[in-house]
Design goal:
Blueprint: H1 2-10, E1 26-27, E2 34-40, H2 57-63, E3 72-74, E4 82-84, E5 87-94, E6 97-102, H3 116-122, H4 125-129, H5 157-166, E7 170-177, E8 180-185, H6 192-197, H7 206-211, H8 215-219, E9 228-234, E10 238-243, E11 256-261, H9 265-274, E12 279-280, H10 288-292, E13 297-312, H11 322-330, H12 334-342, H13 372-382, E14 389-393, H14 401-414, E15 419-423, H15 427-431, E16 439-445, H16 455-459, H17 464-467, H18 474-485, H19 489-506, E17 510-523, E18 526-527, E19 544-545
Parallel strand pairs: 2-11, 2-12, 14-15
Antiparallel strand pairs: 1-2, 3-4, 5-6, 6-8, 7-8, 9-10, 10-11, 13-16, 13-17, 18-19
């Protein structure tokens, strides 16, 4: 089994090294800054640039340090710690209220100055639920569970679902003065600052929204504060960003950035080596030696705050018995996948958590042990008769996705589980309800250093799995509520442990495969540092042309 799997994984060849070719840069007649082209696997899954709609790894790559900014930021090149961004300082007024002082002089891409009114609008019912009839839309934001949107821009259901997940108890956002805002929560929440720093809590221009003729018109060219602004977006093709020279953080180092969809790894590599692209993203580890054999190029990257998961629909006929799902988790040799597919460049983590959680990290936790004998016994106990278990799969949306799936199917087969891969084209088909929805791939990030940001956000009552009808567990939801509302860290940590026990061992919602890693190839002549994230930072100070 092991040797067969390794041959399956390592059968692909390395990239051709190619000749030494210097990168080509487009230079505008009136702007001597370089312009670059970045080859990515995908620009957007939703065909929008709305940070509340495009909740994805590919969205993180193009959004942050480029288009969107929040009140509290992440130091992309400094350990991802929280730092002042559009807010310069903040303080707790009480367990339910945070006050923030806004950075003065910040300009949106339309030239308007950002004020407290824009911040309040960003978290308003209109922006989050499509409701234009709410009173004082800019001064009071009431997010009522289950209230349907009224007249206004028709928002995708994914936007309103995200709003309820990210801000389940937000009552109002109050402008105190032009440069001061207060966030009021319905319940105590020790994670309010973390929520403000997370993906999706980024600020947009109220006038930019008002002037857009429709949600889609706005979502494909949002007016934000980042160092680059949208010039052209062609869904499923490319995105062109141009410098926002009134950026509060200084003049951007690039005239423009062009993200181009290049699904095939070989095409990304060949385009990089020929000079067509200056960056090639999502490099599989087996390609790295071939790229770096050419002295003009290097590959940067490593592990990030994201784990790859296999996710289960417990309502599928073959997965209703948790014994079958438990068998699926114990049949996986995760270290083999890390060694064979990732050349040891990532790790098997301690379940759905990161040491970045500090004192909330559960040191003595582990993923389900690789135990084929136990897995086979669980299959026997369940009475499973060998009926097919569908596994919906995208073609390498995740690095090494297809090869990983093939290995998993073989491992499951050895313990008596008949899992069948079904290739589909997009996320809509992956998540579509029906008889063939049983197993799928996913990833889970930690946008801030608390388990609420990950296990509760994606698997709790308002998380994706429960909203899509794949999985629910009453006790896990109770533990989510403790984690969301308690100010007792010991009680919160105990609830987190119990939620891990339920979600990973007793009634599996998912199983963690490995920590994710991302690798980006570029010419050595470009002085640029990769962040420990999907996000690519091109702000002032992180791009320079030099000699290789």
């Amino acid at each position: 089994m092991t040797s067969l799997t390794r041959r399956l994984v390592l059968g692909g060849g390395a990239a051709a090294t190619g000749a030494l070719i210097l990168p080509r840069f487009a230079i505008g007649q009136s702007d001597q800054r370089p312009s670059i082209t970045i080859a990515v696997q995908k620009v957007s899954n939703s065909n929008t640039l709305d940070v509340m709609r495009e909740q994805s790894n590919v969205g993180e790559r193009i959004f942050f340090s480029s288009i969107w900014e929040g009140l509290i930021g992440r130091d992309w090149l400094g350990g991802l710690k929280s730092v002042p961004l559009l807010a310069t300082e903040w303080r707790r007024i009480d367990p339910q209220t945070v006050e923030l002082k806004l950075r003065q002089g910040v300009k949106f891409h339309n030239g308007d100055e950002m004020t407290a009114e824009d911040v309040a609008f960003t978290f308003s019912r209109e922006r989050m639920f499509g409701d234009t009839e709410a009173k004082n839309r800019s001064t009071i934001t009431t997010l009522e569970q289950g209230t349907p949107p009224r007249a206004g821009k028709e928002l995708p259901t994914e936007v309103t679902a995200y709003a309820r997940s990210a801000w389940p108890d937000l009552v109002k956002v109050e402008p105190v003065d032009r440069y001061t805002v207060r966030f009021h929560n319905a319940s105590p929440d020790v994670t309010l600052e973390g929520r403000l720093s997370r993906y999706g809590s980024d600020i947009c221009s109220q006038r930019g929204w008002d002037e857009a003729s429709s949600y889609l018109d706005w979502a494909r060219k949002p007016v934000t504060t980042g160092p680059y602004m949208v010039a052209e977006f062609s869904p499923d093709s490319h995105l062109l960003l141009v410098a926002h020279d009134e950026y509060w953080g200084g003049r951007p180092p690039l005239a423009s950035i062009r993200f181009v969809e290049v699904p095939e790894v070989a095409s990304r590599v060949n385009g990089l080596l020929s000079g067509e692209y200056q960056f090639a993203c999502d490099m599989p580890p087996d390609q790295i030696p071939g790229i770096e054999a050419n002295a003009a190029f290097e590959v940067q990257g490593g592990t990030i705050l994201n784990h790859r998961l296999t996710v289960f629909d417990k309502h599928h006929e073959q997965l209703q018995d948790p014994l079958v799902r438990r068998a699926l988790t114990h049949a996986i040799d995760r270290q083999l996948i890390v060694d064979a597919l990732w050349a040891g460049r990532t790790t098997v983590p301690k379940g759905l958590q990161w040491p970045y959680y500090d004192d909330m990290f559960i040191e003595d936790w582990a993923v389900p042990a690789y135990d084929p004998a136990l897995a086979a016994d669980l299959v026997k106990q369940s009475g499973y008769k060998g009926d097919p278990i569908p596994y919906r799969l995208l073609n390498n949306y995740y690095t090494n996705q297809v090869a990983t799936a093939q290995i998993l199917v073989e491992m499951w087969k050895t313990v008596g589980l008949n899992v069948e891969i079904q290739m589909v084209e997009n996320w809509g088909q992956i998540l579509e309800r029906g008889e063939t929805r049983a197993i799928r791939d996913w990833s889970n990030s930690a946008p801030f250093n608390d388990p609420v940001s990950s296990i509760v956000n994606q698997h709790g009552p308002n998380g994706g799995q429960q909203q899509w009808g794949e999985w629910t567990n009453a006790e896990a939801n109770q533990m989510s509520e403790v984690m969301l509302t308690s100010t007792d860290r010991a009680a919160r940590k105990q609830a987190f442990r119990r939620m891990l026990e339920i979600c990973e061992r007793e009634d599996p919602a998912f199983t963690v495969l490995h920590q994710n890693a991302t690798f980006t190839a570029k010419p050595k002549s470009i002085k640029w540092q990769a962040a420990p994230a999907f996000a690519m930072d091109f702000r002032p100070g992180n791009f320079e042309m030099g000699r290789s």
